[in-house]
Design goal:
Enterococcus faecalis V583 fold; four-stranded antiparallel sheet; v583 fold; alpha+beta; single chain; globular; 467 residues; 17 helices
């Protein structure tokens, strides 16, 4: 094209950089395209050099980790009481979500859940007594993740709580999770009071024995197959679990009717599950935990095996760096808030439920659940965009979990910390929102981006381990 032709041709703009430049161009009519590019996140130049030099070794380690993750087969094999089965559980220990934290630094929802747990255990008669005991030094705290367990939101697990037992049949390891209480004023959102305690006692004395007997009758329940079906039915099995809960209901209901001697108890349990669309969350979480734990301790792997929050800190663990935690302050989600609440009321992001995103589900599979935007905000197109973006930071696609809207493409699986840093793009998580004050409960649901800090620290740590 000659200069004369160029000067008389319609102007078309491709903008690489600050997006406001594109907006300015469009304000004066020329069509403009924004290139979605950003410089790499800031890490040590020495780390970049080491990981570049060891790239082939890292790829081999990653292929080993990914094969373990993709071939995992999580199944519900039974139920029991936490003290009987969770490794290292003891009477003065309370498990919480996210990376390690002390009472002094705990968020309101975590403290609220702990206080409710102490009343539930009979260690305190009032919330005031529970708060004093929790701060006294007599109670020990540890992350659920360090005890083969995951907990939604505050993630509180006390010794008497019933837990579901999930086995990764391919590799033999186990994972545990409490039973889901439902939405609203519940312990996992940091709420406490008579209503919370009454529900927890009913779950221990009625829901747990009925489900335990039913699962014993059905035998192992294939959660991987159930999750795959749920994705085809509009779930992403983090914030939307309607299909997953319905599939579980179909699997367990006949066994409940067959094994429960009390008609009233059977009706109560079936009614509770039927009215709690989030019941399956406490199955999808340990299913992902059991799958990812099998890929731990593969030296040189840059694949993320845990991603979680305690309401104060966001934490990450890598397959290639053992049990070391990499943390940074948790972010406050962008959310749809219940009437009477706003972002000013929200606690920073909280919960172990980001294990679903770590396993290629949740926000990574949100394109399978466009209806979820009615619950977390945004538009259906946003759900597709989020999933497409997550393909950029993952090392594989699931062979089993597929997204119909993407022509049954496998979900983006295996977060590669190198890609997160090099492309300066962090994982997207869809999540519930707890009030920042203990005792209030849930105030909304929304989308949150993970902070870059933990991934940059993990990147540097991986380089040191390979130096």
């Amino acid at each position: 094209m000659s200069l004369q032709e160029l000067l008389h041709s319609p102007l078309r703009v491709v903008n690489l950089g600050i997006e406001s430049f594109k907006d300015t161009c469009e304000a004066f009519s020329p069509p403009a395209i924004q290139v979605d590019w950003r410089p790499p996140a800031e890490v040590s130049p020495e780390s970049e050099a080491i990981l570049s030099k060891r790239a082939a070794r890292i790829e081999r380690a990653n292929q080993k980790a990914l094969e373990i993750i993709l071939s995992g087969t999580p199944k519900l094999v039974g139920l029991d009481i936490a003290r009987n089965v969770i490794p290292g559980m003891r009477e003065n220990l309370i498990l919480h979500s996210g990376p390690p934290i002390t009472w002094e630094r705990m968020s309101g929802p975590t403290r609220g859940g702990i206080m409710a747990g102490l009343v539930y255990e009979g260690r305190a008669a009032t919330i005031e007594e529970a708060e004093a005991l929790a701060a006294s030094g007599e109670i020990e705290y540890a992350p659920c993740h360090e005890h083969a367990t995951v907990g939604p939101m505050a993630g509180i697990v006390t010794p008497s709580m019933p837990v579901m037992i999930i086995q990764n049949e391919t590799y033999g390891n186990l994972a545990y999770c409490t039973l889901n209480e439902g939405l609203g004023k519940v312990l996992r959102y940091g709420a406490f009071g008579e209503e919370v305690n009454t529900r927890l006692k009913w779950m221990e004395n009625t829901l747990y024995p009925v489900l335990k007997a039913a699962v014993a009758r059905t035998g192992p329940i294939d959660l991987k197959n159930m999750i795959a079906q749920a994705l085809h039915m509009g779930d992403e099995v983090h914030n939307r679990n309607r299909a997953g809960t319905s599939l579980f209901y179909r699997a367990i209901a006949p066994a409940i009717v067959e094994t429960c001697e009390s008609k009233a108890d059977a009706v109560a349990v079936l009614t509770f599950i039927n009215g709690n669309d989030h019941f399956f969350l406490n199955l999808s979480m340990p299913a992902c935990k059991a799958t990812l734990d099998a890929a731990r301790n593969i030296k040189g792997s840059s694949i993320v095996v845990a991603m979680c929050r305690n309401g104060t800190d966001f934490g990450v663990q890598l397959a290639g760096t053992g049990n070391e935690w990499f943390t940074a302050p948790a972010e406050v989600p962008d959310a749809l808030y219940f009437a009477g609440f706003s972002k000013a009321d929200a606690n920073p992001d909280i919960g172990d439920s980001a294990i679903t995103e770590t396993g290629g589900l949740g926000g990574f599979a949100i394109a399978a659940a466009p209806a979820i935007v009615q619950f977390v905000g945004g538009h259906a197109a946003d759900a597709l965009r989020y999933t497409y973006e997550m393909y950029e930071i993952t090392a594989a696609e699931s062979r089993m979990y597929q997204i119909p809207a993407l022509d049954f493409r496998g979900t983006p699986t295996g977060i590669d910390v190198r890609k997160v840093v090099e492309r300066n793009r962090v994982p997207v998580i869809d999540t519930g929102v707890a009030h920042k004050k203990a005792g209030v409960g849930q105030v909304g649901a929304g989308i949150v981006s993970a902070p870059m800090g933990p991934f940059a620290k993990a990147y540097d740590a991986l380089a040191r381990s390979l130096q």
